[in-house]
Structure formats: structure tokens, C-alpha cells
Amino acid sequence: MQPERIVAYEEPRASGVGGIPAHWRFPLLALVAGWLALFIVFASDWAAMARQWWDISTYNHMLLIPPVECWLLWNRRHELARIEPRAWWAGLPLFAAAGLVWLLGGVSGFDLLRQAGVVGMLAMLVPLLLGPRVTAGVLFPLFYLAFLIPFGEELVKPLQMVTAKIAIALTHLSGVPAEIDGVFIDTPAGLFKVAEACSGVKFLIAMIGFGVLAANVCFLSWRRRAALLAACLVVPIVANGIRAWATIYAAQFFGVAVAAGFDHIVYGWVFFALVLFAVLGVAWKFFDRPVDAPMISLDALHSSRLLASLERGAASSRGRLAAVVGAVFALIAALQLWLALADALEAPLPEHVALPQVPGWSRVASAAQVPWQPRAGGADHRLQARYVDGQGHKVDVVFALYARQGEGYEAGGFGQGALVPDSAWSWHSALPAFEKGRGERLLANDRSERVAMTWYRHGDLLSGSNLRLKLAVIASRMRLKAQPTAMLILSAPEGAGEDAIATLDAFHQSTGPLERWMDARAAGR
């Protein structure tokens, strides 16, 4: 390692605006300019994230991440001042990889990937413009940027089930007779649903973010860090189950309305705050980082052979830095052009699409007690009909056809398909489905039940998996190949002598292979 890579630092030598050392002025200016450019070019993605931070309670804690980032960097300022930043061409593939993630999210309509990509590009600009040694010094703040990404919605349903199981176990232990059915718990006081908002995902994500920060700031031992993170994972899940049980138990004596109101006001704010402080209070005794210990070990950075090897070819010249910045802008332009071409793709569709006659089944008017209207936002064709066989078994069919996939017209997007958020129907439990589909049991406000099975068709893909659909769409659009996407939902009412799964299987046997059935509809036959 060249000894000048870590420079001598003394407070009196600091000069420039804000006391910035001379060897940091131009690289820092380039970094700030690069970040501003990324914020401007990808403003729509940053605005979408900011709306989620502000509007969705699950992500409100993410508003604290930017000031936390500033605090983390401020605590490292003296050590960073003694490291010479150097433009590093090897950082370009890292930046390109983050850009590719954004592009994949753009072509698939998967906002989480787009947002991960823009956050990744923000982070990867650091090794590209400042070099591996500076990156090593700010590695944790760069990693912590990941908590800006609004993630966790995919955990809601599993956490609903876990919370329901904890609540029913505690309800039985407390002597209250109860029965569980999916995420619903029936007690003498009434029927309780572990709703999406009660899954505990909000507190779990916040606790993990807090735990990762505390583990880095307060501990040196990796075992103690792991123990804290395990506590931040397990404790909020268990605490949320206790909260759900307490609401059910209180309702047996004070009524459902009083218990629910108390739950949202007291438990929603006080209970979880107490849990957070309890975890912190227990962990406090085991803090092993000295208060005056620096966050960066300059000796470790100075002696690292790996960093010395990685830094070969890095340079601190302004010409090298300007060339790297130019490469970044060229790459961003290429990403934007590729996405624009992919967004312009539109598969040809027939002007008229109709649901066919099915042998042994006839079309009738729907007379459902609770209206069920699946959502297919942005679909070019959307059809819905009810079929009845000779024994009176009923099947509702929804078919949607899309010329393209993207923002506002995603077959597998959030809130699309069999279960519409904030409707009369709620998710009850997952079910096995035939022919690679996705099965779900739904429950209405009046306890009506139905089973819905969903399939997506894109190219050769037939699957009920949103993830597999997105991967298939990514593969098509990255090759700039226009292909239509179809969504098929078969649903049947359950109860009162109706076996929904048997009814759907009988209907499926009458339609024949679903690939051919869906392809025929997409071709207008």
C-alpha cells in the first residue's frame, strides 16, 4: 500500500469550505453532484418511495433513515479526512449492477426492484468516485441505505398466520373457548380477524432496522450483535401475538368495540414502545463498544492487503474523476433508453375476446349474496361470467388480457386479482391448486366463503406465482420482445353443501388444458 493513501491529519491543517481538507474538495463535490443528478434523473422513483414513507404507517420509520445516515457519516468524519479518495474504475461494474436492478424493476413493473436499484446506484457511486478504501470506511452507512427501500409487504400473510396461531394458543391457555379457521378466531364474544394491519409487519421492520443500527453502534462482538438481531426478529413477532390475544381476552369482558379501540390506541403506541425499550434495556448491559472508540479503524484500513490490492489502478487525478463521471452519465442514458424501448412494446391483441361455451356448463346471471369483483387494472380486455352445471354447482370465471405489463397495468401487481384490498372480502388461507395455479380461500363480512384459483399466462409460462410472472415478463422485455399476458381466475362459493375445490376441478376437467384455453381466448378464438 502506498503510504500517502492514508494522509496525516491534524485539525489546524483542515481548510476550505466547512474545514474540508484539500484532497477531499473535488472528489466530494463530484460525489454530491452525482447524487443530485441521480435524484433528478430518477425523481419519480424517489418520489414514489417518499410517498410510501409518509403515507403508509408500515414505512413511517424510514423518514428517520436520512438523518441517521448523516449522523453515521458525521461520526466518521475525522477518520475519513485522513483517507485520500481516489476514482476507481472497478466500481463501474458495481454501479452498472445497481442500474441493471433498476432496469429489471422497470421492465417488470416491480417497484421494489426499481427502488432497490436507485438506492443501490446512490451507494455504488461512493466506491466509483472515492475508491475502495473510503468505501471500507463507510461500509455500514452504505449498507444501512437498504432500509430506505419499502419492503415487507410479502411478509404480511405469513405473519398473519403466525400471529393467529400465537393468539389462539394463548386464548386456550387463558381458558376462553375459541376455534381458529385460517386468520379468523371465533370466540363467545365474536369473530376476530387477524387483519393485514394486525400482522405486526410494521413493528417487525422497524425493530430490525433499529437492531441493525444498534448492533453496529453499540457492539464490537459479532456474537452479541447476532443475539441482538435475533431478539429484534423474535420479540416483535411474539409481542404481536400477545397483543392480539390481549384484545381477544379483553373483548370477553368489555365487548369487541371497547377492546378494539383500546388495542389501537394503547397497544398500537404504548405496548410496542415498551417492548422496544425492554429490548434496549436488556441489551444495554452487554454493550461492549467504548464510548470514545472511533467508528473506523485507520490501522486496519492501513494494513489491509485486500484494500491495497483492490486500490491498484485507482487514481486521485481530476481527469480520471471526470472520465468516471462521464461513464456514469453514459450508463444512465443507456438504461433510460432501454427502458423507454421496453415500455413502447405492445403485443397485438384481437379486437374481440369472448368467454366460450364449456361442455356441461351454461352461462347464467350472477346472483352472489356478497358481490365479488376481482381487479384487473389496466387490462385491455376483462371478462367475467358465471357458469352452472346440471347439479347447480356454480363457478365464476374472470379473464383479463394485457397487451403489455408495466406501471398501472400489472396482472400480478399489488391489489390486483381475486382479492381486492378494502373490499367486503378478506384473505382466509392459502390452498393447493391444480395445474400450477395459486389457490386462496376468501371470507366475506357475512361469513360467506369462496375459493379462488389464479393463473397467469405469458409466452410459455402458466403459473399462479406473481414472481414467476415477473421473471417471464423481465425476460421478454429485456429482449425487447412483445408478448401478451393473460390472467384467469376460477372461483366457486364454499359451504351449504358446496365443495368449492371439487366444483372447480370439475369445471377444469370440462375446459381441458388451461394453456390451450387461455391461448385461444388471447387469440380471439
From TrEMBL:
Keyword Electron transport carried by entry: no
Enzyme class: hydrolase
Occurrences of domain Methanolan biosynthesis EpsI (ranges): 330-513
Major subcellular location class: membrane
Record-listed E.C. numbers: 3.4.22.-
Keywords tagged on the record: Cell membrane, Hydrolase, Membrane, Protease, Transmembrane, Transmembrane helix
The protein, known as: Exosortase A
Organism: Novosphingobium aureum
Upper lineage: Bacteria, Pseudomonadati, Pseudomonadota, Alphaproteobacteria, Sphingomonadales
